[in-house]
Amino acid sequence: MDSPHPRGVVARARLRPWLAFLALGAAGPLFAQAPADSAASPDSASQVIRAVELERRDIFDPDEHGWVARLGNALHVMTRPAAVRRELRFAPGEVFDSAKAAESERNLRALGIFRRVRIDSVRTDSGLVARVLTKDGWSTQVDYRFRSAGGQIEFTIGLIEKNFLGTATAAAVRYQKTTDRSTVAFAFRRPRLIAGRIGVGAQYEDRSDGRLVALLIEQPFFALTSPWAFGVSGEDHDERVLRFYDGQPVARDTLSRRFTIARGAAAWALSASERGFVRLGVQAQVRRDDFIVEGAPGPFPRTVTAAAGPYLVWNRANFLVATGYAGFAREEDVDLGATVRFGLMAAPRAFGYERDGIAPLVIARLGGRVPLGFGYLEGLAGGLYDSSGLDSGSVQLAATVVLQPTRHQVGILHVEGGWIENPLPGSEFDLGLGHGPRAFRSHAFTGDRSIFATAEYRVTV
Question: Angle 449-452-453 (CA atoms, 0-180°, nearest 5)?
Fold first, then answer.
């Protein structure tokens, strides 16, 4: 959750997943119904798993001939058995449970390295065998982007590997040149790196006007029925902040920023099943966030604050397996159920704030099927309240509809709107900087209110 800032500001909340370059997708029909949530009777010895067999396939199947298939398989390192086995929620000696098999499939698809995953049971002479089929996707990508709009030129070039040496490790290096700065960035993430359970992520950006360092260590909820999870993270920024107003091409304010934050969270499942869960968590943070006019004399200020509080998450799951939505060559899981999260952070004067305050946050998501596809609604509302009322806050709403009239065609409609009150410098809405195709220059639309819509139609050949 977004938390109080030194001035009591809750900035615009953004979904900023680690290593956002991981994209999912697949070839084939858009929808494949996930396995039913049914489990075998534990009283039946015939349902006990005698062995788990892995059938790993390269990018191209053995029956796909030609030099392109041979070259692709030769250049690609197939996913290692250990990377597959650590995502499975069943083992020999256990009763085969189709709900656990479905969750294992979701774990494997979430890695973003397979184009197809299937798990089923097979009766053999030695007993019941759980068979796991994985088909690798191409995991090495050259990221090259060039854009010229409003008389400005921006470009990116990078190399991304999402399955380094077949270990499900993601690594990336990227150079980006925008109208504001140039950046050399490195990123790394490996799930289940420590003891087969704890994941590690790291990011470093060397900017022409600053730097960013970030680290994440977490044990997430492996499945809907997982009992607990935890995570710790930290970020350190030394950067320049440009503030644009009224569509002007030149920044009115140029600030220097020192930002450091350490976060920790842990959560436990109050109830959990293959159909959903209720989870209770606690989170805390220690933060420094100071600004000064660039070039101003005098020492840089140093303001340290802390905040802590509980949160509650309720989920009713309804998964489907989609292809062609977030990418082109891989399957992904979409939860069309309902999820609601309530959080409350305490920000007292004793923790460095000007006045005693509380920061509530509500996040909700609801999905469902529509003719030829699916859609979902998302909403977020949060703010900081003190003795004088609302100090700062943010409200955002979004709707997305995905349609697939034929197997190789997909249309995506998206609309979102937002409102922020008293944002931190540089956290105002900026619709011209990173959003889609445009015919206007960067920073042409900035402010504390926004509405944005996009439509996309793709044909996969």
Answer: 160
